[in-house]
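Quick check before the chapter quiz. The format below is the same one you will see on the exam, so make sure you can read both the input and the output lines.
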Amino acid sequence: MSFVEFVRFLTDRKLADRRRFNAHWAPVSDLCRPCHVHFDYVIKLEQFDTEAFQLWRALYGDEAPVLPTTIHRNMRAVRTTYDVTNRYLKQLTLRRMRRLARLYADDFRLFDYSTDIYGIA
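Here is the expected output.
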């Protein structure tokens, strides 16, 4: 299945009622129910190095046990870049990109992401 075919599957209105999202591509807001659970803290993985230390300090104050100075990551993991994402999104029509953006609109709003960098209004 190509990326374009996958996005068609996700955004096809005829399948909307019957579709069962796999946890890997379901909107995160559907999985964690941020409006139904009172979270004290939300940490963005993109800023984990900074926010984990802030959370640690908020939880323990000046008595906080010492955290490691670096967070270990899987160095073999391939990270997606803006260029890679943009290359895939350019395969889509503007209409299809907008449908995809609407599908994940709650995630973008709740987790402070923007579609503007990809030219999706």
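If your answer matched, good. The chain has one domain: 3-115.
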